[in-house]
Amino acid sequence: MATTTTPAFEIKNPVDGSMGFRMIHFEDNSPFKELQRVGYFSIIWIYEGEGLLKADFTEYNIAAGTMLFFAPFQPFMVTGEHVKGVMLNFHHDFFCVIKHHKEVACDGILFNNISQTPLVNIPPEETSMIRLLITQVENELQVAGLAQHDLLISYLKILLINVTRIKVSQDTVKPAPTEQTGESDALLQFKAYIDKYFREKHSAGEYADLLHMTVKNLGRIVREYYGRTPTDMITERIIVEAKRDLYLTSKPIKEIAYDLGFKDEYHFSRYFKNAINTSPQAYRNSLKKAWN
């Protein structure tokens, strides 16, 4: 059966042409029936139909009104009949949930916590508000106007703040998965250690030591869940912080390098360029010029 989705409304990252933000309407589960591990944040709102979500070692029933949230490379799959809805995707260069945590407080509630459910059931009385926000985003994507990037981020913030409030009010936090407990606990601890030590520990071996396991075993469970290596995840966290400093501060690159645990600017610049094919200075110049 042919995939039934509307063409995506999308804006590109002006630095490298990659996807920055997009919206896709879908009329069945075709976009998600295979295991998904995409490199950007995903918000999926189901407004018709019902099905089954497989994510975070657990299966969840979903129905009209369910909104799903996935961090980059978080694996998930949706099966079901007559599932219709809308999906928003955004890259962390476009909107970083870590950077904006104090404003929207969604990191660890909607995203980046596999011990919580990746879904929120939107109450009927909140549906009109969600639909209005989705419509405003779609209109802005279709007809780009002045300060499009700022306006889209404002709509996204309003959406995330409201859904975070709904989830907190519903108290839908669940305990850590009971299946594969040892491995799921190790994954949670690994991500927590990355957030705590990424400025000083850059190798998979250092995190394996903290977890009291071999590098091989750490690599196995991380690949099974995320489809990536531990080094990929460590690098991503370092690069996210580097991008944040390059974009939001006027710190010299040498200072950023030292803050992130590199012995000099040269090693940091080489590390950064190997990760995203752009030097730190070129990234800072091009992004500020494009989005300011």
From TrEMBL:
Signal sequence range: none
A Pfam family per the record: HTH_18
Keyword DNA-binding among UniProt keywords: yes
GO molecular function terms listed in the Swiss-Prot or TrEMBL record: DNA-binding transcription factor activity; sequence-specific DNA binding
PROSITE patterns per the UniProt record, alphabetical: HTH_ARAC_FAMILY_2
Keyword set includes DNA damage: no
Organism superkingdom: Bacteria
Keywords: DNA-binding, Transcription, Transcription regulation
Every HTH araC/xylS-type domain range: 188-286
Name of the molecule in the record: AraC-type DNA-binding protein
Source organism of the structure: Chitinophaga filiformis
